[in-house]
Amino acid sequence: MTRIVGVDVGGTFTDLAYFDEESRTFRTAKAPSNRGDEAVGFMDGLTRLGPVADLDAIVHGTTVGTNALLERKGARVGIITTPGFRDALEMRRRDRPHTWGLWGDFEPVVPRDMRLEVPERTLADGTVRLAVDLDAVRAAAAALLARGAEALAIVFVNAYANPANERAAFEAARAVWPNAHIAHSAQVLPEIREFERTSTTTLNAYLQPVVASYLGKLDEALAAGGFAGSFHIVQSNGGVMSTATARRLPVRTALSGPAAGVIAAAAIAGAAGYADIVTADLGGTSFDVSLVAGGKAALAAQTVIDFGLVVRTPMIEITTIGAGGGSIAHVDAGGLIAVGPESAGSRPGPVAYGQGNTRPTLTDANLVLGRINADRPIGGKLARLDVEAARVALATAIGEPLGLSPEAAAEAVVRVANAKMAGAIRLVSIERGHDPTRFTAVPFGGGGALHVGALIRDVGLKGALVPRYPGITSALGCIIADIRHDQVATVNLSLDGLDAARLDARMVEAGGEARAVVAGAGLAVEAVDVVYELDMHYQGQTHTVAVPLPVTLDGGATGVETTGVTEAIVRTAFEAAYSQAFSRLLPGIPVRIVNLRTAAIGRRPAFDLMALAPAPDASLEAARRGTRPVWFDGGWHDATIWDRLALPVGAEIAGPAILEQPDATTVVDPGLVARVDPFGNLIVERT
């Protein structure tokens, strides 16, 4: 398998990266996204790279699931549950949208009349006290169908301890359910904690028809184009899964696109010698930030997509704010400039696109300041951007209310956006105990490299590394990402007197299941690693610490698979993890193992980043494009303009300078210098 394409569909643009492993040919493409029917932009971008039939594999990072959750545009879901538990989604953790006041305005994604109870009960120790009433299940399923349900979630209390009742109910309901959009919680999240299990299973059902419809459209379009290769989806944990798994577990795509960008940024920075980075993905609608320490992206056990929408599945820790290139700027009721979260997206887009929008965006502000070349808009759809229309919009919406010139208004908009971005970076660095002066920013996305100087200056970062192709970094991540499958099971074991053989058997079984999913993905891998982690705590504690185990699945000399886990190994690992988290231990208190987490990782063949390097005959003379006025710090400066992709290795460009390329623009502020490293990355530092 040699010809692979990574496709990242964002809110404004669809980015594509093509790599032929045999010829080491690398190409990129960019096409406008089509909100509401993203398959159109997907296919438009693919055809720009050549015949679809010539491709061997496509790996896709998607925001369809994320957008459906944020915009509450999922399917109509029905829930069948245990008596007394139909309100778990509304009770949550007794939190509320607004801390102060007596009333909240939270509405769960499933209204109360779509949540039905059936007789059944399983105890916490796994004992079935009351077998499920299958006639009641079938009647409930029929009632939910009559009320318009498109997907069904079955969630019984304590099903993590014994899923027998849930499985029986699932089979009974499936016999009368008209589609494949049906699941029970033990399939999605067989883990203790009723609300998190209910929320994750429900949101999975909420996304099933949406994601299945989207993938179905893509499959049809690809088949019509003659594509006969493998098609895969990036997960929120940064790994890759088959489209069959994505249809069954769409909740794992909640942060698919942003996760691919973090994977690529970590790989690019690691090859360049930077292990501690902060990724800064500025797209058309949002700004996504993640911290990579020691070369490893941080994984979280769960995330909150929006208030009350809790997804408990492993995913890369990413902080998202509404500050993208299409974010609309306005003066609020208090007379202050605000940027976002509302976005112009790709339709109608910024004012300068000339597609009907009259409200200025962050892109319009950068254009008026001369940082974006109006004659070379990214994406290839527009011949030229309308600078004068952007000036008028900024003057009307920002300048006139505040008594500012169009340029001063544009600079103010950029500074407000920069401040929001800096706040997001502080959230993942300083507020989590990391010294930002040790970290290097990796800005990417269509607009990230426009704000390099602000990221360095406002947060105090060490410097910045701008990837060779910042606009398609997330698409490149789709190519680089390993295949990965995570699963969890609640075990509830005491560490004292641990039955290691019993735990080893559970681990071997889980490892085999996870490895089988990876093997069935259909992508070439060099090896499959199985890794384990335990959720543990001292007895009486509510929350757990993640405890990585220094063991793996191994056939050994006997051919009988084992992990070799022992009580001593688990205790040592727990004490190390607990000490790192809390700087102390609690001697004399019993320790418990709550959950077993298993991950199978199919290691993809290494991507040679030297394939992106500048041509040997590149030169400064060939890259020079003259000068133009660019606004910095309250006035115009003559900035040198460069064709970034024509710069040779070792070139040093002092600010003020603008480096242009088809997928992005890099701004080097006064007082900064950029040099080209052997991979073609730009290393930006203070002079």
From TrEMBL:
Residues 5-175 form the Hydantoinase/oxoprolinase N-terminal domain. Residues 522-679 form the Acetophenone carboxylase-like C-terminal domain. SUPFAM superfamilies: Actin-like ATPase domain. Pfam families: Hydant_A_C, Hydant_A_N, Hydantoinase_A. One of its GO terms (cellular component) is cytosol. Residues 197-486 form the Hydantoinase A/oxoprolinase domain. GO terms for molecular function: 5-oxoprolinase (ATP-hydrolyzing) activity. It comes from the Bacteria. One of its GO terms (biological process) is glutathione metabolic process. InterPro entries: ACX-like_C, ATPase_NBD, Hydant_A_N, Hydantoinase_A, Oxoprolinase-like. This is Hydantoinase/oxoprolinase family protein. It comes from Prosthecodimorpha staleyi.
